[in-house]
Amino acid sequence: MNEEELLKKLREAFSEESRERLASLSSSLLSLEKGVGGEEKARNLEVAFREAHSLKGAARSVNLSEIETICQAVEGVFAAMKRDEINMSGDLFDLLHHSVRMIEDFLAAPEAARPERMGEIASLVSQLQGVQTGREVKVPERKAGGEPGPIEEKTPLKPPPSESVRVSIAKLDSLFFKTEELVTLKLSSDQQLTDLKTIARSIEDWNKRWAEMERHRKALQGMATQGDALDNLDRFLDWNRDFIRTLGAGLRTLTKGSSQKDRTLGLMVDDLLNDMKRVAMLPFSTLLDIFPRMVREISREQGKDVDLRVKGGEVEIDRRILEEMRDPVTHILRNCVDHGLESPEEREKLGKPGTGTIELTVSQVAGGKVEVLISDDGPGIDLAQVKRKAQGLGIMTEQELEALDERDALSLVLRSGVSTSPIITDISGRGLGLAIVQEKVEKLGGLLSLDTA
Q1: Closest CA relative to residue 381, chosen from 399, 404, 406, 403
Q2: pTM of whole model > 0.70?
Q3: Which residues pair with 364 in a beta bridge?
Q4: Distance between the two ends of the chain, CA-based, in angstroms?
Q5: Which of 28, 138, 142, 318 lies 20 to 30 Å from 263, alpha-carbon distance?
Q6: Which residues touch 160 (CB under 8 Å, ≥6 apart)?
Q7: Are 209 and 238 in contact (CB under 8 A)?
Q8: Nearest in space to 431 (alpha carbons), one of 443, 441, 440, 419
Q9: Neighbour tally for 277: CB within 10 Å
Q10: pLDDT at 138 > cutoff 70
């Protein structure tokens, strides 16, 4: 392997490592932004500091000086934060999240296009270094609420394909142990096969003896007495009786042993299959980790304050299903932020906290199934508006709509074109989203249900 090939493999490994470290860094930033204090604040700061430091070293080892430079500047900011030399403002967190985004975009870009980003990187590093010296953080102004503006699709919803997957050592150890047990069982089965072959040879010997006795049998035909022939036949019949009994006992023993080993082998194969399935399973947190930052970015651009609360990240699910669920969950969350929650001003008029809440809960239910529950504390779905929209699209007549109960009326939002949003933005309002979500969920063998306050 030449140096170029080695560097390519090292950068592939770095890309995988960087995704995990950047996800951890983003998670720590989001926790810090919520205003946690005491030990939790110190812990999150330490995690963020260590992740930036480790990523800097890893970037240096694969000759990615651009990322190394960004990480060094970010690390310096975290060091100043640990010394309480910098105030944790919203603008500062915007800048730090932008730094994470810059690294992700740089890694996702083709190598030929990376030099074009050098100017952006230099500007970002200059800002980060300026923050450490007390310079004011300069970030785009946050919108003050009101009508939401266009949303630029920034969050990479699907990571680049990888030929490798990380598996925990505990899962691999379990697989190796079960494989060794199967090898032992295979040797035992080989010995059993040898015993069966021995019995088969014995039966062949019996066939030869029987063929010899055929001559004596023919000699006795038509003769009443022939002492030697009758004696030989007598002895053969005695031998044959003992032989068949011995053969039967051996076959019963082998059958019993084979039955036991078959049950044991069946259980081991089932266990190995279950462990292999577990290797292909990932915790829901691998999907959930992208959402807090996505919700933060959309809410900031919409002039809203949103707190996303995630529970059940430890629940494991097949990796292929997890990847297919990414888009439906993403769409629902974006809808929640865009027109499920009110602006801070509207919430205050209604006597609600200025910060809206979205809850995403994952739980294991009966039958090995998983339930994903997404809710928000917005005003809910306006069923009267849904009916008006459905009537305007010619889906149902006014009389048919009046006859619907609440659940049937609610299901109308799953029809293509039906939306409760009065405006269309880049992320919602066209009435296609939930119809597509339902299609994808049902394709996975799932069920989509709706409820409103």
Answers
A1: 406
A2: no
A3: 370
A4: 63
A5: 318
A6: 15, 108
A7: no
A8: 419
A9: 11
A10: no
